[in-house]
């Protein structure tokens, strides 16, 4: 495994996508819990 610029960029992009999905789930969970209250 080499740390080529392209691999690094793809890794960062994948990490950002994962964070975005996690935030989306968090927001959905927050709105859901707010509704339950």
Helix content: over 70%
Shape: rod-shaped
Percent of residues in β-strands = under 5%
Main sheet, how many strands, which sense, barrel? Answer: none
The whole-number mean of residue pLDDT values reads 79
Name the helix and strand elements from N-terminus to C-terminus, one letter apiece.
Answer: H
Quantity of strands, as a count: 0
Number of helices: 1
* First-residue to last-residue Cα separation: 49 Å
Q: What is the CA-atom radius of gyration, in angstroms?
A: 16 Å
Q: Helix/strand/pairing class, anyone?
A: mainly alpha
Low-confidence stretches: none
Describe the overall structure.
This protein is mainly alpha-helical and 37 residues long. It has one helix and no strands. It has one helix at 5-36. The N and C termini lie far apart (49 Å).
């Amino acid at each position: 495994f080499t740390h080529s610029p392209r691999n690094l960029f793809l890794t960062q992009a994948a990490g950002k996508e994962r964070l975005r999905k996690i935030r989306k789930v968090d927001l959905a969970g927050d709105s859901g819990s707010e509704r339950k209250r």
